[in-house]
Amino acid sequence: MSFLAATLIPxxxxxxxxxxxxxxxxxWLLWLFASSGNTLGAVVNWLLGRYLLHFEYKRWxxxxxxxxxxxxxxxxxxxxxxxxxxxxxxxxxxxxxIAGIMRVRLWVFLxxxxxxxxxxxxxxxxxxxxxx
Length: 132
Description:
By secondary structure, this protein is mainly α. It is built from 6 helices and no strands. The protein has helices at residues 2-6, 13-22, 27-51, 65-78, 92-101, 106-131. Helix 2 (13-22) packs across helix 6.
């Protein structure tokens, strides 16, 4: 679920994570699988950005040209460090796609995106533990 949530498919894995926590699953394993899956899903976006940009004027392209240019400008302004925000529900997937377009090295991408997504899931687990 976390893998799908990181791709361009709209899905929220936090709901499933909280549900699994409520049923007594191990929080550390859930954190590991959610963080890994979400980071690997972001790699799909990175690959798509790296190889599918020449289709940007096709009808099925996942972003409008104006959105794409806005995200590229924002990315150029803040640089690779903006990938720490790839966990955001609005625009996070676009950042990972833009990182592919901008040819960010995969190892840099994995570290920054993995860190941001891992911290997000850790926060969800801690907050859920307080509520449940």
